[in-house]
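Researcher: I'd like a candidate sequence for this fold, 347 residues long. If you have to choose between options at a position, lean toward the conservative one.
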């Protein structure tokens, strides 16, 4: 487990795993496994399963355990011949009883860390939220999660993050408020707590490269210290994952050389523009998950954009917008890589 903790701190590409469905909206096991194989072969450093991109409704449909189990088994199968560290991140949600039960399921399946959604505890105090996370940490190490309010998250204070940083089993934090002020609050709280061992992961799909190339300054202990985002746990990285792995490698190299090429910033702006179409920013992210599915559908990894809730569909014009950004910035995609391996992943 310590190897996985160090692996996270080194900084990885961690896709937020989507859910593949049949026309009857049952689990499409063949394509679900194909997606996991894609992420492993693309060079991702882990996958997050049971999270927003996987659709929180898998719980009420009795799919939580089967979906996590498929991912864990597919990862082990893929890495059997070429072992390497790979983080299995389980999304846990609901009240404390439910979240702890989900953490136990995840642990039994070989998952390493729990990404904790606090959306269900909308009215809880900071102290109650930390108590909730501590109960989960008794089962699995914790990956803190600031989910943007527009897709069901809640505002989280800097004081909450400072208290959470006192939890020894806090391994990492996914920072995804889609808000620069709140992003800095989290970084500041972790640095002020002296937690250099806690990995910081961007979840801000609207500013991926910006986050990863920024040395965040924090006043702590009478000096100005800087922290970088180590990696990303992102819905955007559920698509074009091969390119995401290459992108993070180039960013790390640029940081080592203390020189950020202007081309990286340009690429980051293009990625944000593409994400606006995929995540359906024009309609307050209503088509976020179907937008991810659409990219995977075009590549052949998914059959259609079906979600568990039939009302969750592409917004008017969203498919056209996704086609436009794919044509405008073909270098962001990994279509050739997917085409080369798709039959093998689906076998």
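Model: Candidate sequence:
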């Amino acid at each position: 487990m310590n190897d996985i903790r160090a692996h996270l701190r080194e900084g990885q590409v961690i896709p937020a795993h989507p859910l593949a469905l049949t026309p009857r909206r049952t689990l499409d096991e063949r394509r679900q496994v194909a997606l996991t194989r894609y992420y492993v072969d693309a060079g991702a450093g882990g996958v997050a399963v049971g999270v927003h991109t996987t659709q929180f409704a898998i719980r009420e449909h009795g799919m939580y355990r089967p979906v996590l189990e498929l991912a864990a088994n597919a990862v082990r199968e893929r890495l059997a011949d070429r072992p390497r560290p790979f983080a299995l991140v389980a999304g846990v949600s609901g009240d404390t009883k439910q979240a702890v039960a989900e953490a136990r399921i995840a642990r039994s399946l070989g998952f390493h860390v729990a990404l904790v959604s606090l959306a269900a505890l909308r009215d809880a105090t900071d102290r109650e939220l930390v108590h909730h996370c501590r109960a989960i940490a008794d089962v699995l190490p914790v990956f803190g999660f600031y989910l943007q309010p527009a897709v069901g998250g809640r505002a989280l204070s800097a004081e909450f993050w400072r208290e959470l940083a006192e939890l020894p089993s806090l391994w990492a934090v996914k920072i995804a408020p889609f808000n620069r002020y709140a992003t800095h609050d989290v970084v500041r709280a972790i640095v002020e707590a002296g937690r250099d061992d806690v990995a910081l992961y961007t979840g801000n799909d609207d500013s991926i490269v910006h986050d990863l190339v920024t040395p965040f300054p924090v006043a702590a202990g009478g000096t100005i210290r800087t922290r970088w985002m180590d990696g990303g746990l992102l819905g955007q990285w559920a698509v074009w994952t091969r390119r995401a792995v290459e992108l993070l490698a180039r960013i790390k190299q640029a940081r080592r050389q203390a020189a950020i090429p202007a081309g990286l910033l340009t690429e980051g702006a293009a990625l944000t523009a593409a994400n606006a179409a995929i995540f359906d920013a024009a309609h307050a992210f209503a088509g976020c998950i179907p937008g991810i599915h659409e990219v995977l559908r075009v590549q052949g990894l998914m059959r259609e954009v079906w979600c568990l809730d039939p009302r969750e569909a592409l917004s008017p014009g969203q498919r056209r917008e996704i086609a436009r950004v794919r044509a405008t910035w073909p270098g962001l995609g990994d279509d050739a890589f997917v085409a080369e391996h798709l039959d093998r992943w689906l076998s």
